[in-house]
Design goal:
Pfam families: HTH_PafC, WCX, WYL. The chain is of the alpha+beta class and about 300 residues long. The protein is built from ten helices and twelve strands.
Length: about 300
């Protein structure tokens, strides 16, 4: 695959300090080390030969030789050390490793590797430079869910539905666990509802692993429908919980325009109603009509109860 200019520039900056540490290295070995072709390494060396400090006289240019496939640096100018991560990059890496450590508490092999990387990072940064504002969400069922995903098994969960404020038993086929804003979310196929769902792991109160399955989820699911909603900018939790089915989101003057791909309109209509008036339907018309009819039915039921 062809490099872009940024990738090539970064590689050339890494080449000089590497060659300084390995004088007489071959272009063939360099190609293997940097995962490019030998021809590309030769082009990079030719580019380096024309680079240097302002002034660009022979005294300011990088000087190197690569005759007969053997490379040596004569004058590296300022490129004597490997590139280091910026402080911001180090913070992001450390946060990521901390999150991985939290969600892999039951996997000692992974924990050892993560701890080793964290020790390397801590040697280069202030150990107190990264402070987590709150504890990262964990779940006692993460290991069970991870096993179910790897072994293609179904699981039965007891889930606290926020929109309906009730505990429900769900039979699902999990396929992915992701983290967003410190919270763990499970993407799964809901057997009873015949569609994909996203579950917040914190809201799972019971989880039991079931039998292996050869279910083809692409055939079991109903036809996807595109839904467009205008979501209030304050409703980040709605977007977080539905990341697996959101195909696009754009910030507008009226809020966040969210495009979702859903398997049925039943559950999305309930979600819109539970967040009213902070979510408005843009399309399809059928969803708007469904919600309107439900609201009328609720109002009629309320009126009849008051009159009785």
């Amino acid at each position: 695959m062809a490099d872009n200019a940024a990738q090539r520039a970064l590689r050339t900056m890494d080449l000089v300090p590497y060659i300084l540490e390995h004088p007489g290295v071959s272009t063939e070995d360099l190609a293997v080390k940097f995962s490019v072709t030998q021809k590309q390494i030769e082009k990079d060396l030719q580019l380096i030969f024309l680079c240097g400090l302002p002034g660009y006289t022979p005294y300011e240019l990088i000087d190197l030789t690569f005759e007969d496939g053997v490379v040596s640096i004569i004058e590296p100018q300022v490129l004597t050390k490997p590139r280091n991560f910026s402080s911001n990059e180090m913070v992001v890496i450390k946060l990521g490793l901390e999150m991985l450590r939290e969600i892999n508490v039951n996997e000692p092999d992974k924990l050892d590797k993560i701890s080793t990387l964290l020790q390397k990072i801590n040697k280069q940064t202030d150990q107190d430079s990264v402070l987590l504002a709150k504890e990262i969400s964990t779940s006692p069922y993460y290991s069970v869910i991870n096993t179910a995903i790897s072994q293609r098994r179904q699981i039965s969960i007891e889930y606290q539905s926020v929109s309906r404020d009730q505990l429900t038993i769900r039979l699902i086929f999990p396929y992915n666990v992701s983290m967003l804003n410190g919270n763990l979310y499970l993407s799964a196929y809901d057997v009873d509802r015949r569609s994909d769902r996203v579950f917040k792991l914190d809201l799972i109160s019971r989880c039991e692993i079931g039998e292996p399955t050869e279910l083809d989820l692409t055939k079991s699911a109903s036809i996807d429908q595109i839904v467009e909603l205008m979501v209030d900018v304050k409703l980040t939790n709605f977007i977080e919980r539905n990341t697996s089915i959101i195909v696009d989101q754009r910030l507008t003057s009226d809020g966040i325009k969210v495009t979702l791909k859903v398997n049925n309109l039943e559950w999305i209509s309930r979600a819109v109603m539970s967040y009213a008036p902070n979510i408005k339907v843009i399309s399809p018309v059928a969803l708007s009509e469904m919600i309107e009819q439900r609201v009328k039915n609720l109002l009629n039921a309320y009126s009849s109860q008051r009159g009785s």
